[in-house]
Each structure stands twice: as structure tokens, then as C-alpha cells.
Amino acid sequence: MIGQALVLDADILIRAVLGRRALDLISRHQDGTAFFAADESFADAAKYLPPIFARRGLDWAIGAAVLNQLPALVQSVDHEVYAAFEAAARRRIRDQRDWPVLATALALNCPIWTEDADFFGSGVATWTTGTVSLYLAPPPPQPS
């Protein structure tokens, strides 16, 4: 049963491909949390990951395989879904390149998981990899 949702920034998609922590958090919590990312975030990850792999001397074929599996865990949100929130998102965020992520969060009415401080103060709850476990944790039992 899905009880909550998060919009992932491209940096989290990149971390999910490069490391274990983000991918592990997504995998462990996929039954109780719906994970979303703007189609632009997937495009950014696909753009930036190959050079990162090359700089680190890593095999891009392995990274590409992980990136290609992410849509099974993180639903891509089409531009048409969040386009109506572009103006509001652009007004709220300093780095204008990040508007699709904020617009997606506004469209879906859910928080953002990011490492980018530009989202802080945008009017949408923002979680980092270091704190997102608090959001993903099951709610404490209610007293009867």
C-alpha cells in the first residue's frame, strides 16, 4: 500500500546509479512510498552520468543498466503533468534549471528529495539523503 510520495531530483537519480544508499532507500521503501521524477530529471541523469563514469574510470554499461532499471522504481512524470506549474516554480526557485522538479512537486503535492540547497525555502518540504529516512519511516503507532 502506497502511503506517501516523493519527487526525486536528478542528483538523487545520479546517486542511485553511482552508489548504494539512495538506491537501497528507494528499493526498501517502494511498497509504502511512490517515487516520482520529472522527465527532465531522467534526461539530466542520462546526460551527466556518462562523463562522471568516464572521469572515474567506471564501466558505463553497468551504469546505463542501473539507470535503465530506475523507471521500474521511480515513475517518470511527463512535462504535460507539471507544465501548468512552471511559472509558480520559476518564481520560487533561484536556479531556473530546477523548475521542472519543483513544478512536479507542486503538481503532485508532495515533498522533494534532493541534495540541492536551491530547493530549500521554495515552499515545498525538502529532504536530503541524510534525513529522508525520517520521512520514509513508518508512522509511530497511535495510542488507543
Describe the structure.
This protein has 144 residues and is an alpha/beta fold. The chain has one domain: Rossmann fold. Helix content is 49%, strand content 13%. It contains 8 helices and 5 strands; from the N terminus they run βααβααβαααββα. It has helices spanning 10-18, 21-29, 39-55, 60-69, 79-82, 86-92, 99-108, 132-136, and strands spanning 4-8, 33-38, 74-77, 112-113, 126-127. It has a 5-stranded parallel sheet. Helix 1 (10-18) packs across helix 3, helix 1 (10-18) packs across helix 4 (60-69) and helix 6 (86-92) crosses helix 7 (99-108). 35% of the residues are buried.
Task: Name the descriptors.
single chain; five-stranded parallel β-sheet; Rossmann fold; alpha/beta
In short:
The chain is an alpha/beta fold.
Detail the topology: elements first, then pairings.
Elements: E1 4-8, H1 10-18, H2 21-29, E2 33-38, H3 39-55, H4 60-69, E3 74-77, H5 79-82, H6 86-92, H7 99-108, E4 112-113, E5 126-127, H8 132-136
Helix pairs in contact: 1-2, 1-3, 1-4, 3-4, 6-7
